């Protein structure tokens, strides 16, 4: 069991009808910033018995929309239940079951002598929405595999942006607010000890910023919030010389260098390319891992890892085929090495702790950077790394290469969260700017109650984070951009209330 400050009392999950997303920043950071091993004390896998590893993560999300009675904020899942004849809203009940079912599948497999693993990524929107809907049964099922020590070795939660914001187009000042809001909310539901075990991060839409300053601030925020690693999409990164990755089944060192010449790095596990949900639903990472053998990092030979994430509820393959394929894979492993040798499943933090205990050093991981950055750095001298020089290089590249952009790269390159959405982005940046103008100075003043614990602050923060939800810039103009405009309007109104 992890040790952390014992004086901490449990957090309320809902405050004045709002999710607990702020107010205990000092306590959250004291819990997450530790170097204690998370999986090493309990793992039942010995690295020397393993040839190859796979890790799968399930991404779950439903946006919050102003579509309840009287325009109240509700989960899109609730809207689906209340309007079953619109679009594919008939899937509401299967979706709700998908959010819960891992709480049944893991105990079932463990009772059968299997050695399952899964990583879970739930947006803050979804966690709040489930509570709003009165679906505490779903949260309780998840608590079972999160808080019961019998199941902790098999499950890893990944942190994410609370409001499912795609990071490249999120105002830089709000990146850390999303990260720490999710940590607040998670601790309020699952407890401090569960939060202390959350060491990996899953960016919404696998969207990685490639602007030097945005990436630097993102990685800096991750490290300040206690994260050790993040999942990145294979084609969203390149080697430092601009090549495609040649060791995609090994952990990498993601290098972030800003326009001031400062550098920072964090470990990255590489999510391989492919049809994400279908690959996870059919347990393809397991079958791919069967084709691999040990590889060298520094002087140590380690099993490679095939990492994959997909929507945990979306699409017929995931809704219908995943449970049987998931079970079949673990049964197959039990019959081939007992589930603890040969090809095995692991959680991301478990894998990294095991290979580092075996002598791997993160500085020996192959290095990578966001795709396209090598074009910037080959035009900027290391001894003249100034914002103006970097900006000049960027403008030059945009002129000579029509495909060059700093919108970042995600799981797919045919969808943009920027082009055509000026009517959402402009209000989004305006609300963020107004929010920081109102509160940043106030946070510097001493008061009996932190400003971030006050209801007015939390309500404005909520609207600021909600407006940045990627769904409002995914489905094209119409109902979803209307939702964004309404959230912006309410946020602006809140700004004028003292």
TrEMBL record:
SUPFAM superfamilies in alphabetical order: Glycoside hydrolase/deacetylase
Gene Ontology terms: biological process: carbohydrate metabolic process
Gene3D superfamilies listed in its UniProt record: 3.20.110.20
Position of the signal peptide: none
InterPro entries, A to Z: GH57_Enzymes (IPR052046), Glyco_hydro/deAcase_b/a-brl (IPR011330)
Name of the protein this chain belongs to: Glycoside hydrolase, family 57
Organism: Nostoc punctiforme (strain ATCC 29133 / PCC 73102)
């Amino acid at each position: 069991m992890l040790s952390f400050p014992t004086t901490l009392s449990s957090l309320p999950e809902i405050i004045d009808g709002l999710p607990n997303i702020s107010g205990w920043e000092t306590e959250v950071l004291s819990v997450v910033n530790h170097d204690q091993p998370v999986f090493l004390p309990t793992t039942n896998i010995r690295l020397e018995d393993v040839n190859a590893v796979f890790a799968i993560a399930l991404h779950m999300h439903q946006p919050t929309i102003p579509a309840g009675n009287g325009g109240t904020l509700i989960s899109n899942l609730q809207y689906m239940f209340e309007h079953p004849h619109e679009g594919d809203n008939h899937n509401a009940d299967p979706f709700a079951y998908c959010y819960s079912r891992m709480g049944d599948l893991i105990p079932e497999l463990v009772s059968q002598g299997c050695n399952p693993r899964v990583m879970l990524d739930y947006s803050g929107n979804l966690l709040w929405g489930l509570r709003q809907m009165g679906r505490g049964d779903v949260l309780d099922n998840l608590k079972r595999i999160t808080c019961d020590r019998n199941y902790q070795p098999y499950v890893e939660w990944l942190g994410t942006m609370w409001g499912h914001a795609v990071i490249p187009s999120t105002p830089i000042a709000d990146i850390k607010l999303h990260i720490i809001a999710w940590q607040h909310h998670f601790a309020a539901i699952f407890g401090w000890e569960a939060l202390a075990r959350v060491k990996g991060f899953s960016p919404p839409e696998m969207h990685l910023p490639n602007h030097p300053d945005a990436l630097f601030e993102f990685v800096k925020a991750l490290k300040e919030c206690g994260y050790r690693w993040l999942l990145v999409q294979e084609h969203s990164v390149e080697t430092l010389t601009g090549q495609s990755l040649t060791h995609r089944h090994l952990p990498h060192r993601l290098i972030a260098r800003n326009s001031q010449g400062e550098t920072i790095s964090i470990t990255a596990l590489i999510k391989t390319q492919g049809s994400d949900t279908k690959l996870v639903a059919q347990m393809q990472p397991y079958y791919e891992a069967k084709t691999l053998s040990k590889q060298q990092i520094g002087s140590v030979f380690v099993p490679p890892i095939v990492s994959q994430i997909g929507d945990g509820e979306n699409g017929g393959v995931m809704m219908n085929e995943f449970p049987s394929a998931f079970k079949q894979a673990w049964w197959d492993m039990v019959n081939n090495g007992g589930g603890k040798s040969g090809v095995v499943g692991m959680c991301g933090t478990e894998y990294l702790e095991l290979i580092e205990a075996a002598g791997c050093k993160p500085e020996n991981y192959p290095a990578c950077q966001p795709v396209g950055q090598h074009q910037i750095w080959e035009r900027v001298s290391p001894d003249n790394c100034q914002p103006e020089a970097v900006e000049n290089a960027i403008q030059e590249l945009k002129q000579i290469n029509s495909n060059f952009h700093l919108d970042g790269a995600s799981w797919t390159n045919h969808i943009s969260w920027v082009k055509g959405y000026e009517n959402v982005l402009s209000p989004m940046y305006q609300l963020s700017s107004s929010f920081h103008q109102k509160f940043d100075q106030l946070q510097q003043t001493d008061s009996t109650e932190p400003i971030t614990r006050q209801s007015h602050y939390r309500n404005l923060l909520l609207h600021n984070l909600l407006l940045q939800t990627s769904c409002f810039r995914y489905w094209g103009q119409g109902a979803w951009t209307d939702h964004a405009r309404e959230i912006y309007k309410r946020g602006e109104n809140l700004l004028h209330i003292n």
